[in-house]
User: What shape does this take?
Amino acid sequence: MARIALVLALAVALSACGGGDDSKDAQQAIRDFVQATNDRDGDRLCGDLLSQEYMEKATGATGDKAEDACKAQLDLIKGLKLRLISVGAAKVDGDKAVVRATIATGGQRTNRRFLLAKEDGGWKLLGGS
Assistant: This one.
């Protein structure tokens, strides 16, 4: 549980709906990530916004079991509330993007760098720091 909470708090960036402006879609993925995390919407977060690779690293599960493990771990998290302070411009390079954002958790602001990848037609969180 602590592992996924840390991953969620450090992350923030995922998939937006397809087509159009990749830069804006990548930024929207971050907004969607924060919303899905705060709503504890496992279908949206784990199904649409986190890459398969990310879920496997965060949960230790592989294949189809990674999404189920992600949803189960999200259900266990209590009290985590992310507040998106700002989203910077996305730097898109083909099917990869970097988006910087400022997130507040527990009253503490942190600057984050989110790595995104195009997967299944949308931007999904690949990692972050």
